[in-house]
Amino acid sequence: MPQVVPYNDVYLTATGAFLPGPAVDNDTLADYVRPVGGASERIRRRILAQNGIRTRHYAIDRRGRTRHSVAEMAAAAIRQCLGKSNGTPVDLLMAASSGGDLTLPGLACQIQAELGWRALTTASHHGVCAAGMQAVANAARALERGEHDSAMVVASELPSRLFKHSRFEQRKVDFNAHFLRWMLSDGAGAWRLTRAPAASGLSLKLRWVHAISHSGDYPLCMQMGASADGRQSWLDYPDFAAAEADGALSLRQDIRLLPHLFDIGTHEYVALVRDGLLDPDRIDHFLCHYSSEQFRPVVADCLERCGLVIDQARWYSNLAWRGNTGSASIFIMLDDLLADRALEAGEQILLFVPESGRFTVSFALLEVVGPQHSPEPRPGPTGIGLFEARAAALDDPELPPPHDPEASTLVGRAPLARLIAELAGVWHDYRARAWHTPMVRRILAGQFSQGDYLAWMAQWIPQVREGSGWMRTAQAGLSPRYRRLAELIAIHASDEQDDYRILFDDYRRAGGPLATIDQLRRNPGGEALHAWLSATANRRDAVGLLGAMYIIEGTGQRIIPALLPLLRRQLPGLRGCFRFLHYHGENDVEHLQRWLDAVESVLAAAEQPALVAADIITCARRTAELYLMQMHDILEAA
Fold this sequence. Notes:
single chain, Heme Oxygenase, Chain A
């Protein structure tokens, strides 16, 4: 993860927001965004029942006419923000949106013209939900370097123009194009950033912003401007009418990929905690743009066990009455927080904004300060993260614990906390590199052939067949203190001992030419992985193999499910030949839950938990390297 550089003298001194028109409740929603056919109505009812939104705002009227432009809404939010800061001018304007009123020029220039402002520096940020946070980060850097004294950062969204009934009634609409019609709404929010706190009242000191893109790792999740399969740009059609008729101008989201976005966000969050930039216990207000209903139960349980969950009482969301306004959501949310709650100096606010376009996640940490606040000496990396500090406090009687030992959920859990954090880093690196292996890149490019699939299966089946074997070998070598682990291994090995038969049957159905499993051969990477796992399993108390299981089961739950829809689309003739991949994508959630139980039991039983945790981490790293070697060799050995 790139180093996060803390800011020393950047302050948020005012906020503003603009929500167009009256609030639209679920009963009158269809007057603005009408269903198209029976399927659309069913989708509408299902989505409204799940998303928790009760009211939202639209900048279009019931006839689909635009009442406020993107630039007009942004200008209104800025005027409100300036009204809270005595109208003091700024010398930098940063704007963000997923789509302005014009294809060009940039939105910031359009907003400047709308306001009638004289000459100043502008920059436009185009993207999806995280575009606003990227604008904040760039404005903060400019202020921190002394290039400007004050900045206005604004995000404005008007997606309702895309959802008008007239655009959908004459053509067939797929689910991915329907989904967002009932999820998104309109609005704008603005923040004023300065190099000093406000002269009176409270300000929010911007501690740091972390915004990072993983667009090179995952398939396209949310897009507008391409055909349904993402292969043809709207500009490549004979004319705009043809692009519209084919749905290339519809806003789409592949909701099957969304769990992976939170997976990325979770690992970035854990890394921030690990590096000492964030202490969940110190967060007083957590503003999360991503719906909490979408959190993966296993990931949430993992964070809870290592003490990283922020208590629900400290969460703040306006989704129920503002809706999802894309990049403007976090701006409007903070404006509502400041209006709803009386903040006190010293409180911390954590912002989290994920973006599902091609997967970007962003965090920002704010601290409430008074008018007399002075910049602290510029902090630098200490090399001591939260987990190390807490472990030292628990281990050294001369150091006071971070909080009441009786109430602390981390007492006795320092090894588990460090283990989960380190494994998050191992997984993060492995996942990114796995998406760049030749096999996966060919799948993402839509070039995976039946022969490629058969080669993959032929080299993978022998490894799967041996999996339960090395697990049972490790089980036999466990000391009595690890009785609970032995029980869990027995259950897991029993569950998976015949999995290879399903996989071999898939191989044969897909046209695999070899008639018996004994004829199949692992590639060099697979051989190395098998030899190392087998040798490790023969050691006494080989509990480090829990690290290997973390990588293997994680691949089945977090990577394979994202590839499976692409495989089915590219290989329609192999219908019914992906049962093993589907099975693991569905069941590895349960397997990872079992893994968490196993790790907790091992650390509780170990004489030296820190050494055991280090062994698990080392094993995870080595397994990841060998697994990647196996993946790299698949197409070469074909």
